[in-house]
Amino acid sequence: MTNLPPFANAISGALGAIISNTLVYPLDVAKTRLQVQNKESAKSTKYKGTIDALKQIYKEEGIQGLYWNGLGANWISTASSQFSYFYFYGLLRPAYEKRYAMHYGKDKMGTLWELLLGAHAAALGQLFTIPVVNLLKAFIKSVIATRQQTTRPAKDFHQTMIDVLNEDGITGLWKGLKPSLILVINPSITYAIFEKLKHWYMERFKKSPNALLIFWMGAISKTLATILTYPYIMSKVRLQWKCEENNENLQYKGAIDVMRKVYKSEGFRGLFKGLNAQIVKAVLCQALLLTLKTKLDLYSLILYTLVHNMLHPK
């Protein structure tokens, strides 16, 4: 990623994420429905796969079922989470590079250091935004949007939040927090692989990769990260989903309990239910994000410079 000032880096990351998430949002709805689909539920609609889910949702609920339910919460979540991640990434990277150079005498960091940097940035992003904007961020997205995507008939943002607060109190908005903190490793794996691929290309061909190559590098990076962390991704969604049946096997105490019950009911394959939809959605979204961010970096730098000059006139 470009060595922009942290604020400019965060702006381009947030804008790129909003655009890319909006473009692939129907896939987000489909993968969420597939992740909460289970054999234990008598009421659960059975989808054969991603395409079948998209077709059935559109047939039964129209374009609103595919595109509008939870989209507002998704925008809030995406903007805040990606802004915080890229801000801390840009803030921490110079320090990591300086320390790496002191220890190893090299300019480019190794894979382990890239992973540590990404995990450090993601963890700080989670910790600093949880107390302040969680009602507007990942856990509104993760809880409110997940509820909106899986509740029929669909309810609006305000009513869904009231339902969560009435059922579980204020702590209901923090459902899935533990797996979310564990999943900070997902973006660190993604960006570590991406940086390595980009660095290899630049070393090998002595030029920067074009937009198409960046797209494919982002796709490869996100695919590997998603496969490695998927059982926790599925567990987080199950924890935030509301089962409308009085079935003990569909009530979960935590991520490990989710995985244990899913494995017992559906075997090893059950832990990866919805993986295809998750990969298609996540890969397209991440690849588009990295492609868009590369293009938006220049505009973000211009915006940052204008704001900085306004606040600090000479």
From TrEMBL:
Solcar repeat ranges, renumbered to this chain: 4-95, 109-200, 209-299
Transmembrane segments: 75-92, 112-133, 211-233
Membrane-related topology note: Multi-pass membrane protein
Pfam family of the protein (one): Mito_carr
Family affiliation: Belongs to the mitochondrial carrier (TC 2.A.29) family.
Species: Rozella allomycis (strain CSF55)
One Gene Ontology CC term in the entry: peroxisomal membrane
Molecular functions per Gene Ontology: ADP transmembrane transporter activity
Sorted UniProt keywords: Membrane, Repeat, Transmembrane, Transmembrane helix, Transport
One Gene Ontology term from the biological process aspect of the record: fatty acid beta-oxidation
Protein name: Mitochondrial substrate/solute carrier domain-containing protein
Subcellular location field: Membrane
